[in-house]
Specification:
It contains two helices and four strands; from the N terminus they run βαβββα. It has 93 residues and is α+β, with helices and mostly antiparallel strands. The chain has a four-stranded mixed beta sheet, with helices on one face. The chain is globular and about 35 Å long. It starts with 10 loop residues before the first strand and ends with a helix. The model has no long low-confidence stretch (mean pLDDT 91).
Length: 93
């Protein structure tokens, strides 16, 4: 599992947006509770930001060199699907 979260060198920031209490963000909260410590341990210098706001639909953003940014909605995905989506974003360049 830890190899999945070794970010590419061109990745500058990962940002998660989700609702603190909404049912539509439950899988995102579960994923972050499980995976955040592993991601941070493997990438101590890369900012991993968690943004909670009432009513926000779950989404992840990855910012790369030269300001390039990609995002992926996490709404309706299971914990495993969220893991796959995040893994593909942090491995892309």
């Amino acid at each position: 599992m830890s190899g999945k979260y070794a970010f590419t060198k061109t990745l500058k920031e990962v940002r998660f947006l989700f609702c603190q209490t909404g049912e539509h963000s439950a899988a995102a909260r579960s994923f972050l509770a499980r995976a955040y410590p592993i991601m941070k341990k493997n990438n101590p210098t890369t900012p991993i930001m968690l943004r909670e706001a009432a009513g926000t639909l779950p989404k992840v953003y990855a910012r790369y060199e030269f300001g390039q940014e990609k995002s992926q909605t996490l709404e309706g995905l299971s914990d495993k699907q969220i893991e796959e989506a995040v893994t593909s974003l942090v491995k892309d360049a």
